[in-house]
Amino acid sequence: MADLDAMMVDLALLVAGAAFCLAVLALLRLIVPRALPRLLVGSASGGLVGACWLSAIHAGPGHKLAIFGAGFLIAPFCLLPVTRRLSGRIDGLSRAAAGLGAGRSARIRYLWVPLLRLPIALSFLCLVFCLTLCLSLANFAHG
Which residues, 6 or more positions from 78, have their beta carbon under 8 angstroms from its beta carbon? Predict the structure, then answer.
């Protein structure tokens, strides 16, 4: 039972680290809007490797901070499918739909939902895979 509680704490820390990374990325998007897709692509692969490494090391008292850092490093990798889709030709499609008289709700329903359905599903699968990988590495390494 204590092992399950420790795993739930690790999962909560991973998710909190990923949420904190999303907040930082949202802030960066406000500061440097054009550089965010390149920043995500550049940091995604190294972030995944770093997350696996952080979850597997014997950090002693810093284990909780290492798990939080692993969650922080997972988020850019999991956002790649969505950012790759959004960095394309979407602005022109949205302007064309607005020019043809589509309201905001119609653009969301008929343009954004179909375009982002698969990337969001892929991002969710990446997140589940990364969380499972980090939790199993942490459980294996920390007993």
Answer: 18, 123, 126, 127, 130
Burial annotation 69-92 (CB, 10 A radius, 16+ → b, else e): bbbbbbbbbbbbbbbebbeeeeee
Question: Model-level pTM?
Answer: 0.72
Please report the beta strands in 8-143, taking only residues with DSSP state E, as ranges in sequence order. none
**How confident is the model at residue 89, as a pLDDT?**
63
Report yes or no: 82 and 120 within 8 Å, Cβ to Cβ: yes
The reported pLDDT for the residue numbered 2 is 58
- Confirm if 123 and 78 have CB atoms less than 8 A apart: yes
Q: What is the mean pLDDT of the chain?
A: 78
Alpha carbon distances (Å) from 139 to 4, 5, 86, 92, 131: 10, 12, 36, 47, 12
